[in-house]
């Protein structure tokens, strides 16, 4: 078996796996979107509250569709030895790779800027919408209960808020270690419950190696896919001649 034939076979098998994985995600996404209740019931104890707020179905459909497209282009391009399909496959992988690198650079360079944007959105939401808007209230209650945190920065995000005024000066119960219904600002200050943003940052730092390893692995696979597709593309002319 020649080098070209071996690379072509590996390209077909690898992209066939991508295609089948994409179909699986696509089917799961459609299932969750159409009948999310039975899907969550199937997960049982693993169906955490956060899944209520993240539209997992549409996310799976989007990722699955991209994987199906890539798998089709790569598999058919290698199998039929089509330069057009191989070049399209290479271009899509290259665009995804550049977008991932750009997102990583922006995340590192503008992390403080992103923090400012989040703070500018979260603090007014807690001051005005928490306790009155059911969606905002449910999201924040779930987040604070899950992470055992209080507000975006700390309890001061609720001081002077509509929630405090409507509840006679009381803050959310999670802001006090006693979890009493009458959680006053003084008791919240003594409890010193950490803000959710700091808590999330600590979790991200703890898992930074895992996230970095996964990102590096995906990057290596994308580079390998581009190299193999371009190898096949460049050797097709000599193959035909």
UniProtKB/TrEMBL annotation:
SUPFAM superfamilies: Tetraspanin (SSF48652). Pfam families: Tetraspanin. Keywords: Glycoprotein, Lysosome, Membrane, Transmembrane, Transmembrane helix. It comes from the Eukaryota. It is found in: Lysosome membrane; Membrane. It is a multi-pass membrane protein. The keyword Glycoprotein applies. Gene3D superfamilies: Tetraspanin. The chain crosses the membrane at residues 12-33, 53-73, 85-110, 210-234. Signal peptide: none annotated. One of its GO terms (cellular component) is lysosomal membrane. Structural component of specialized membrane microdomains known as tetraspanin-enriched microdomains (TERMs), which act as platforms for receptor clustering and signaling. Participates thereby in diverse biological functions such as cell signal transduction, adhesion, migration and protein trafficking. Regulates neuronal differentiation in response to NGF by facilitating NGF-mediated activation of NTRK1/TRKA receptor tyrosine kinase and subsequent downstream signaling pathways. Plays a role in the inhibition of TNFalpha-induced apoptosis. Belongs to the tetraspanin (TM4SF) family. Interacts with SLC19A2. Interacts with NTRK1/TRKA. This is Tetraspanin. It comes from Cottoperca gobio (Frogmouth).
